[in-house]
Amino acid sequence: MSETLTLTRAARLIGVTRAELQKKIQCGEMISHDGTVTVGNLLACYPDAQLEDDAETRRIAQIKERAFGKRVFERALPEPEVLAARITELSTTLAGSQSQVKQFNALLGKLWDKLAEIETRADAGSRTTLEDLKTWIKQEVELATEPGFINPLAIKDNVLRVITAQVTVLPSKQDFLVEGHDTLLEAAMRAGIPLNYGCSGGNCGLCKAKVVSGQVKKTRLHDFVISEAEKDQGYVLLCSNTAVSDVVIEAAVADSVQDIPFQQITAHVKAMGHISDDMILLHLQTPRTQRLRFLAGQSVTLRVGQSFSAELPIASCPCDDRNVLFHIHRQSGNLFSDYVFDRLKDHEAVEMEGPHGEFILHEKSPRPLYFFAFDSGFAPIKSLIEHALSLEAENIHLHWFGSARQNIYLPNIAHAWQDALDNFHYEEHVAGFDLRTVSGKREESLLAQLGEITGADADLLQSDVYIAGPQDAVVIAERYFLDKGLPKTRVAVASVK
Questions:
Q1: Which has the least CB within 10 A, 399, 414, 458, 479?
Q2: pLDDT 10s digits, 121-150
Q3: How far lies 388's CA from each of 127, 134, 381, 391, 423, in Å?
Q4: CB 478 within 8 A of CB 377
Q5: What residues does each domain of the chain span?
Q6: Which fold has domain 369-495?
Q7: pLDDT bucket at 1, cuts 50 / 70 / 90
Q8: In the CATH scheme, what is the code of domain 165-257?
């Protein structure tokens, strides 16, 4: 095992998040150099890690024990050819180490012969010195070659290298792990890294990237033609290849909304169901060869019945670009809303245009994340939170305000996050009035509730704040935090009808 580990691999070996390691680095508990940590520093911070069972073995064992048994287990592991290639690579490394040991033993034999030859020509004083030298060499060799303590992290790292491969993206220096049957593109999306792509099906070539080092394997056929010259330079399609070994690639990463192209896609209704009496969850599915590329928090324009349209925030994570979710609120007299509630059917075509908006996550910020959702403002907030979770954000807080109790329409999702994640905190607040119309006494009441939250949480004013919901409530909440001294760059807002 190498002396240094990337934070991604180190976190997986110890069984913690990258965020926890970054926190230890920031507070000086662990030393990091250029995004890596030494094995010694890692063990100094987590001495009990040597006593734990292998985290990857436990994870695979749990998968095997589930109801679907073999099929699920097979999906959790790479394809047989990839698995064989990774084992072969480790075997090659082992064979090299064994060869070096043989060469060392041969060299040691020659050394003894040479010392014996010198000893025959030496005087009495020199022979004593040679005997002392031979004794010292023998002791040092015995110390160097005895088995000693085998660091369990070395075993863990070798298991991890068989089950997963690490990919480093240049020039951004982001990294992620490829697991199971995932392609390079799929694995990057699951890790929240927005690489450039188009169709995801090997037709457009937008996900073409250069392999700088490491070995990849084509797992899907593609129609896009890569020239022989580009192949010689190491170019592949990320949507059609997986990583065999640890890989370094050169690929563009979307840093802003300007990096996301405008798209027009005909999707179809996969499913729809009532969340509440006046709220529908609409699940649209795009064609396999034309998926929606967007950043978490953005919106698209939907068009139904050929003429009824509305701009709606996406309520799902970019990591699943083919299945796009929306929370649609019933608005009496609104033609789009009426059509969705009364006439829209399964499998019906729905036109999507976009994405729109700059309500996105500031991914490079080290500050805690605070989300304020007012009524159906939970839709874009949900997208942002799911993306933040894929990035293993360190500290996430969600405050959901409902005009009435029923306006907090998906509380089970937030409660599930809170139950499953140590770094997620959730609170519900019932305003007691329509958050679409806030003035006078209602404004005073809302400001008082925000004041109570701020007074009870000293970290809030040191964080990044994201606010979404009806315009009246959003404007008041935004002004409240700006008046408290938060700069405009740390307060992001989105109005949702």
A1: 458
A2: 888 888 888 888 888 888 887 777 666 555
A3: 71, 61, 10, 5, 11
A4: no
A5: 1-46, 165-257, 260-356, 369-495
A6: Rossmann fold (3.40.50)
A7: very low
A8: 3.10.20.30
263 or 67, greater pLDDT: 263
Q: Kindly report the number of other CB atoms within 10 A of residue 55's CB atom.
A: 17
Taking alpha carbons only, the member of 198, 195, 197 closest to residue 178 is 195
Task: Give the pLDDT confidence score for residue 143 in this predicted structure.
Answer: 74
List beta partners, residue 248.
168, 213
Q: Could you tell me which residues are beta bridge partners of residue 312? A: 300
266 pLDDT tier (thresholds 50, 70, 90): very high
Token pair for 160: 């991890």
Whose structure tokens read 């090997």?
202
Tell me the Ramachandran region of residue 35: left when phi exceeds 0, alpha when psi lies from -120 to 50, beta otherwise: left
When pLDDT is averaged across residues 365-385 and rounded to a whole number, the result is 96
CA–CA dist 463, 218 (Å, integer): 43
Please list, residue by residue across 365-398, b when 16 or more beta carbons sit within 10 angstroms of its beta carbon and e when fewer do: eeebbbbbbbbbbbbbbbbbbbbbbbbbbbbbbb
Type of residue at 138: K
Per-residue model confidence (pLDDT) at position 64 = 39
Tokens of 176: 């992620």
Question: How many CA within 13 A on the CB side of residue 339?
Answer: 14
Q: What is the residue whose two structure tokens read 């405050």?
A: 399
CA distance 152 to 54: 8
User: Which region among 5-14, 215-224, 435-444 has the lowest average model confidence (pLDDT)?
Assistant: 5-14
Superfamily of domain 260-356, CATH level 4:
Translation factors (2.40.30.10)
C-alpha 15/C-alpha 200 separation (Å) is 31
- Report the candidate in 322, 310, 312, 309 with the shortest Cα–Cα distance to residue 270: 322
- Which pair of structure tokens corresponds to residue 415? 């409660």
